[in-house]
Specification:
- The protein has 98 residues and is of the alpha+beta class.
- The chain has 3 helices and 3 strands.
- The protein is 47% helix and 17% strand.
Length: 98
């Protein structure tokens, strides 16, 4: 610790930690988890299915070729179920294709 610097606060309970952990960090963590799980689920198809945005419960995916579009349409429900397994409460309700 440098001279004149305030000592770093140590947490004494999980509630103190939770209060200091702001909502922006929670949203960013959810997005990081979503990106990681998406890449694990789709594998090499991530070249054709690109995550573009999440708004409320909708996941927006850009599809690069029509064959990949048809496969995404067929796997949409399965992907939503698999993605929601990784969150405390179901987050993704639908997948919109762009």
């Amino acid at each position: 610790m440098k001279f004149g610097q305030k000592p770093r606060k140590e947490w004494r309970s999980s509630q103190e930690l939770d209060r200091s952990y702001n909502p922006l960090n929670r949203r960013l963590n959810r997005l990081m988890i979503l990106d990681h799980v998406w890449n694990q689920l789709v594998g090499n198809k991530n070249r054709f299915w690109v995550l573009k945005a999440v708004k409320e419960d909708t996941l927006y995916v850009q599809v690069k070729i029509s064959v990949a579009r048809n496969e995404l349409i067929a796997r949409r429900r399965q992907l939503i179920t698999e993605l929601n397994k990784h969150f405390d409460e179901p987050w993704i309700g639908k997948i919109e294709i762009q």
